[in-house]
Amino acid sequence: MILTPKIVARIAALGFAGVLLQLSFFSQVELLHVSPDLLPALVVCLGLLGGSLTGAVSGFSIGLFVDCLLVESLGISSLVLMGTGYLAGLFRERADFHGSLVPALLCMGLTLLAELGYAAIQLLLGVDAPVSTLIVRDMLLKSAYAFFLGWPTYLVVRRVLRPALVDVPRVQRQRQPTVLGA
Questions:
Q1: Distance CA 64, CA 50 (A)
Q2: Would you state the pLDDT for residue 168?
Q3: What distance in Å separates the CA atoms of residue 55 and residue 51, rounded to the nearest whole number?
Q4: For position 132, what pLDDT does the model report?
Q5: pLDDT tens readout for residues 66-104
Q6: What does the alpha-carbon distance between residue 59 and residue 78 come to, in Å, rounded to a whole number?
Q7: What pTM value is reported for the model?
């Protein structure tokens, strides 16, 4: 990805819109008593398209913005989302596996990892919360929702960042040769 000031502004606008969508819409929607989480999917898509540095920086920024808006302990969401974006970017840089289900599967797996990391940090900080099997069910459902949110999120992020993407081949039409006199 070629980072110019306009592309950085687009990434910041994507992060801002993602946080606003998460806090105003997705946190109010409950499917099976669990609300989907858009932010790990957004960070994974940014990491997949931009690489490990772009994924880590955008994950940290989005997480810090969420922590500031929710008046929580600063750094928990930013640490988890930074790791998520870095791992997605590392997958882009190291793996040579391309397919139509890669963004959705990566969003699902890294959202589960992000939820586990967030729970581990909360437990290490001494948050007194009852631990039950419902937490595991919620984590699995959030990762399943991330699978379904992953593909549309990837398409939107790819569309917004299209001018900066290096790997996207331009589709050119092949001209059919014409035969004179036929």
A1: 20
A2: 47
A3: 6
A4: 78
A5: 999 998 888 899 999 999 999 999 998 888 777 889 999
A6: 6
A7: 0.86
